[in-house]
Write a structure and sequence with these properties.
By secondary structure, this protein is of the alpha/beta class. The chain has seven helices and eleven strands. A seven-stranded mixed beta sheet has the order 6-5-4-7-8-11-9, with helices on both faces. Strands 1-10 form a two-stranded parallel sheet. Helix 2 (74-86) packs parallel to helix 3 (103-110). It holds the Pfam family Methyltransf_16.
């Protein structure tokens, strides 16, 4: 079983930006209802800001419930903030899985990636397309439907990426088989896979499922991590993981 150290690390609030509302707060719900676009700083440089509109009308056609993936969650803020100081996106190709509102992938585009592909389920694609447009990234950011584990997607067998980004994907352990299959399709020998997650009781089980498929899971040191998000629960913790496919597993058809 993977050992998670993040329970000892609290997220610090950024000191240089206004705190946006969390997804469950009354203010954030009102912003989504009014369709206000958020300007989210993703690095200390003043120019490094991403525009994101959170949609409240993206509905799951099966359950009839709102698709909360269209909102910006704290894990996406954490990942965007972390990669802005730890990764070099210049000239890189980037894939975001379970993109939701697309903040980490849009951050990669802002910081120099030459090609970014944002993927999620069909219902979330209109919101992703709009966020690409409002940031002026239509020349280098694509939006594609991708259901984990499915062979029917816009990502071809020959499409490998330099960097894969994921936030809040470790939720249901039953989804990890499909996620693992997709990661093996899109990862080359040099691909880096980075994931951020708010720590929950089931996070370890999800990571164990990936390890059972031949992935290595390495938790990153995040003692200096800060996030421009208002975390309502003072006991909320986050972690950054690097997911490494083994060469033997990655070479399978």
């Amino acid at each position: 079983m993977v050992t998670i150290q993040a329970s000892k690390k609290k997220v610090e609030e950024s000191q240089y930006c206004e705190k946006p509302a969390t997804p469950n707060s009354c203010l954030c719900k009102e912003r989504r209802r009014m369709g206000i676009i958020r300007e989210i700083p993703v690095a200390e440089a003043a120019a490094h800001k991403v525009l994101v509109e959170e949609l409240d009308d993206a509905i799951d056609s099966i359950t009839g419930r709102p698709l909360t993936g269209s909102w910006v969650w704290d894990s996406a803020l954490v990942l965007s903030r972390w990669v802005s100081t730890h990764l070099n996106f210049q000239g890189k190709s980037v894939l975001e899985l379970g993109a939701g509102a697309g903040l980490p992938g849009l951050t990669a585009a802002l910081l120099g990636a030459t090609r970014v592909v944002l993927t999620d389920v069909q219902q979330l694609l209109p919101g992703l397309l709009k966020n690409v447009e409002v940031n002026g990234f239509t020349d280098k950011v694509e939006v594609k439907q991708l259901v984990w584990g499915s062979d029917d997607s816009g990502i071809t067998e020959s499409s490998t990426f330099d960097i894969v980004l994921m936030s809040d994907v470790f939720f249901d352990s039953e989804d990890m088989i499909g996620l693992g299959k997709t990661l093996k399709r899109v990862c080359g020998e040099a691909t880096q896979v980075w994931a951020a997650r708010e720590m929950r009781p089931w996070t370890g089980e999800c990571l164990d499922q990936l390890m059972a498929q031949g992935f290595q899971v390495v938790e990153q040191e995040t003692s200096q991590l800060s996030v421009h998000a208002a975390v309502q629960d003072s006991n909320t913790f986050f972690a950054i993981f690097q997911i490494k496919p083994t060469l033997a597993e990655n070479s399978q058809p």
